[in-house]
Amino acid sequence: MRARTGNATAAPWCYLEHQPHDTLYPPSAGFYPNGGIVNNITDRLVYQNPETLEFEPWIATDWEINDDATEYTFTIRDDVTFSDGTPLTAEVVAANFDLYGHGDPERALIVSEAVNNYERSEVIDETTVRFHFDAPAPGFLQATSTINSGLVSAETLEGAFEDFAPGNSADVIGTGPFVITMSRWAPR
To answer: Which residue in 2, 73, 77, 149 has the most C-beta neighbors within 10 A?
Structure first.
């Protein structure tokens, strides 16, 4: 892994885990070896402060929730890029949650256990996205703060389960502070 500093001489660091990850697909990040990496290569819409339990801005600068928790509207920062240089837009955020909320059985990508009652997304403009739910989803704001909701690039979202697997880690592009520059995996 290498820090995203914009400086080509940033020192790489090595992430070692006694048990290897089996996928970097964010909804599967609950397994510790997966989550340890996903947490470093992706960002989330909001941050939940572990001391106060309050939600704080991260990728989203602001959010609104309707009275019955069936619509959540987020304003997205306009200065965020993925590690490949492509911009993070409301459209890409919507695509992330459309996949996490519906899954894709044909590509063996599961629905996120953190996203319940998901109906659809609606891109309002370049920096505003609204999520619609077919029943109240009072836990969605917290869901957007978990590693299961890490944001990956549009190109990464096109992959199937095997594209998130060991050996393909460097191809998983996120907005987080680190990028994977190489990955070695050898079964025991």
So the answer is: 149
φ and ψ at residue 117, rounded to 5 degrees: 65, 25
What's the CA gap between 179 and 41, in Å, rounded? 6
Dump the DSSP string for 53-95.
--EEESSEEEEEE-TTSSEEEEEEPSS-B-TTSPBP-HHHHHH
Q: What is the CA radius of gyration of the chain?
A: 16
Exposure pattern of 11-46 as b/e (b: 16+ CB <10 Å)? eeeeeeeeeebebbbbbbbeeebbbebbbbbbbbbb
Quick: pLDDT tens for 91-149: 999 999 999 999 999 999 999 999 999 999 999 999 999 999 999 999 999 999 999 99
Residue 131 host element (H or E): strand 128-133
Polymer length of the chain = 188
Rounded to 10 degrees, what is the CA torsion of 98, 99, 102, 106?
A: 140
Distances from the Cα of 164 to the Cαs of 21, 35, 168, in angstroms?
A: 10, 13, 6
| pLDDT tens by residue, 166-179 | 889 999 999 999 88
